[in-house]
TrEMBL record:
InterPro entries on file: TRIM8/14/16/25/29/45/65_CC
Official protein name in the record: TRIM16 isoform 22
Family annotation (Pfam families): TRIM_CC
Domain TRIM8/14/16/25/29/45/65 coiled-coil region: 2-71
Listed Polar residues bias regions: 93-112
Region (Disordered): 88-112
Length: 112
């Protein structure tokens, strides 16, 4: 192989590496912009929640506080629940609780 061919191969490899790095940089920038947009959205949501909490903290009347808390935007805050192993006693959709009973196996059955 002559020096000219070797130089051309090195330049081609260099161009391929540069293209690869530019693609990776663009992907990283795109991902960073997506993360930034998500964080800005979450920040705005948290600011709304903070303002609502501040408004609610200023309410001195307990009844007004409870009424407002039921209709406030705090519904967007995550609620956590725990499964403590109790059977689900709520009726299945479309069934009223009057025609349901629990069996010894904690499963729903309908009265016939």
């Amino acid at each position: 192989m002559q020096f000219g061919e070797l130089l051309a191969a090195v330049r081609k490899a260099q161009a391929n590496v540069m293209l690869f790095l530019e693609e990776k940089e663009q992907a990283a920038l795109s991902q960073a912009n997506g993360i930034k947009a998500h964080l800005e959205y979450r920040s705005a949501e948290m600011e709304k929640s903070k303002q609502e909490l501040e408004r609610m903290a200023a309410i001195s009347n307990t009844v007004q506080f409870l009424e407002r808390s039921m209709t406030s935007e705090l519904k967007c805050l995550p609620l956590f629940s725990a499964n403590i192993g109790l059977p689900d006693l709520s009726p299945a959709p479309g069934n009223s609780s009057s025609n349901m009973r629990m069996t010894s196996h904690s499963t729903r059955t309908q009265h016939t």
